[in-house]
């Protein structure tokens, strides 16, 4: 397994190798912004600082990428009665929601259904990705996520459409950069009970020539690798315990923590990015065409001198031959 400490270093290295900025796709929930640890930190009313809880959670949990799940038996979680109760309550609420769509009234109890979830600090992956944007290492960023509206009451759909917290959060952060696209895919259950369209099918439609794909779902990474069969693509997991089971030469697990990023950091970074793009051509860049013309002129002059010298040489050779022939004739 390839463990790395920096997504920024990986992107910079790949950009230098390919001699161009990269196209990057990044999942939002639990890659750019914590979700599952935020849910259980809130529901359990944990007194542990969120940054510490985040690391404990991902090092000890054993979850399904598409939904919060159980935990491995480790002392630091076995004795946390509030956390175990929160996990149990969360599952009960989710099950009731599946059976009774009108149960959405209690959805806010999970923290998942509240605007407050988008006030959770972003991850170190988000911070390093922002640095890559500022340095021009990325030519296109696709922030990707999905949602399921099946069995959702109509009034709840209207409420979600009017108060799309995730879209608003993306617009306040990475959406400030003109190279960012936000892909929010509606998924539905097929006959086998699987959510479609699959992420790799959607990627095939919106950004098939991506260079790096970041996701915390082993199914999404595995399916995308099979879909594209390319040695020219790189896949990145946050280094969470559940993701470590998938290993390959083109898969990296990057150390992930809670960052200190704020929305204001994105405002400043976007302004710097715009200013750089609007900068007039630098003297060095302006000199390049002149330097090229000068080199071309020197080459032409050299060619003329060479042609002249060659002509003189041929003339002298001709005179020499003429003189020899004339001399032999006299004899």
What features would you highlight for this structure?
331 residues, alpha/beta, Rossmann fold, 3 domains, 7-stranded parallel β-sheet, two-stranded antiparallel ribbon, 12 helices, 9 strands, 50% helix, elongated
Q: What is the topological layout?
A:
Elements: E1 2-4, H1 7-18, E2 22-27, H2 36-43, H3 50-60, H4 75-78, H5 81-99, H6 124-134, E3 138-147, H7 154-162, H8 165-172, E4 180-186, E5 188-189, E6 195-196, H9 199-206, E7 212-214, H10 218-228, E8 234-238, E9 251-254, H11 263-278, H12 283-330
Parallel strand pairs: 1-9, 2-3, 2-7, 3-4, 7-8, 8-9
Antiparallel strand pairs: 5-6
Category by helix and strand content: alpha/beta
Number of domains: 3
- The rounded distance between the terminal residues' Cα atoms is 92 Å
If you average the pLDDT, what whole number results? Answer: 82
Could you give the order of strands across the largest sheet? 1-9-8-7-2-3-4
> Which fold name is given in CATH as the topology of the largest domain?
Rossmann fold
How does this model look, in words?
The chain has 331 residues and is of the alpha/beta class. It has three domains: 1-33 and 121-279, 3-Layer(aba) Sandwich (Rossmann fold), CATH 3.40.50; 36-119, no CATH class; 285-331. Helices cover 50% and strands 13% of the residues. The chain is built from twelve helices and nine strands. It has helices at residues 7-18, 36-43, 50-60, 75-78, 81-99, 124-134, 154-162, 165-172, 199-206, 218-228, 263-278, 283-330; strands spanning 2-4, 22-27, 138-147, 180-186, 188-189, 195-196, 212-214, 234-238, 251-254. The strands form two sheets. Strands 1-9-8-7-2-3-4 form a seven-stranded parallel sheet, with helices on both faces. Helix 1 packs parallel to helix 6.
